[in-house]
Amino acid sequence: MLCSSLIPTAFAGNQLTAFLVVICFASGLNVYATVAALGLLAHAEILTLPSGLGMLGSWYVIGAAVVLFAVEFVGDKIPVFDLLWNALHTFVRIPVAALLAYAATTQLPEWQRLSATLVGALIALAAHGGKIAARSAITQFPEPFSNVALSLSEDAAVVFLTWFATKHAYAAAAIVVAALGIIAIMIRIVARAMRTLLRNADSEFHANRDVASTRRAS
After folding, report:
1. Is residue 128 within 8 Å of residue 93, measured between CB atoms?
2. Region of residue 80 (left: phi > 0; alpha: psi -120 to 50; beta: else)
3. CB atoms closer than 10 angstroms to residue 32
4. Which residues, listed in sequence order, are joined to residue 47 by a DSSP beta bridge?
5. Contact between 35 and 47 (Cβ < 8 Å)
6. Is 204 exposed, middle or buried (0-12, 13-18, 19+ CB in 10 A)?
7. In angstroms, rounded to a whole number, what is the distance separating the alpha carbons of residues 184 and 55?
8. What is the number of structural domains in the chain?
9. Sign of CA dihedral 94, 153, 22, 135
10. Of 76, 27, 91, 72, nearest to 53 (Cα)?
């Protein structure tokens, strides 16, 4: 039992699918932490990376990911700035998640690899969208602690899910599926709240304009 626990985890078939679901979700939250975690887990001989992801084990890639994670660790905790940062990372997190899914499925026919890439991108998009929705919801609070706590919980979730998936891929994927369901509900609530806010602001604008017009006419 001890010897088997020291063998790095290698994925294939449905296990690989579950693992990629987790990795793409984690990339949608924090792609730099995900890439760094994968590389470090490979170096610690906890995980055997799929052949197409072998480059993630390079210390150059790990080093770059750690540096970028450090930058994001600070910037992601500054209210308002974090919204701009996350908006810009729409063009980083989702493409990288798609690339990870494509590179990890070299053993599949091309159409299946492309399907995996599309699904991976959609999962990352959902995670990324949920992150932005959550940030938008708490930006209205002036104190920075809510933003910092949310950002720290996201960072912790990425590291935990990436590690947990190496040992329990199906359980980790189940957690991600549940999280995606919560995100779908949360995005709908935030979207509805934003529409109500804009509608109220528009009504207030027209009411003030009518009052001003009445005063000028009198």
Report:
1. yes
2. left
3. 23
4. 9
5. no
6. exposed
7. 33
8. 1
9. negative
10. 27
Q: What are phi and psi of 141, to 5 degrees?
A: -85, 125
Q: Which tokens sit at 191?
A: 């979207």
How many percent of the chain have pLDDT more than 90? Answer: 55
Residues 20 and 161: their CA atoms lie apart, in Å, by: 11
pLDDT at 210 over 90: no
Which tokens hold the place of 170?
A: 């199906």
Distance (Å, rounded) from C-alpha 75 to C-alpha 125? 20
Q: Given this model, what pLDDT does residue 216 score?
A: 65
Host domain of residue 77:
2-217
- The residue written with tokens 């084990």 in the block is 57
Burial class (CB in 10 A: 0-12, 13-18, 19+), 213: exposed
| pLDDT tens track for 97-129 | 999 999 999 988 999 999 999 999 999 999 998
Query: Do 101 and 24 meet the contact criterion of CB atoms below 8 Å apart?
Result: yes
CA distance 29 to 56: 18
Are the C-beta atoms of residues 61 and 37 closer than 8 Å to each other?
Answer: no
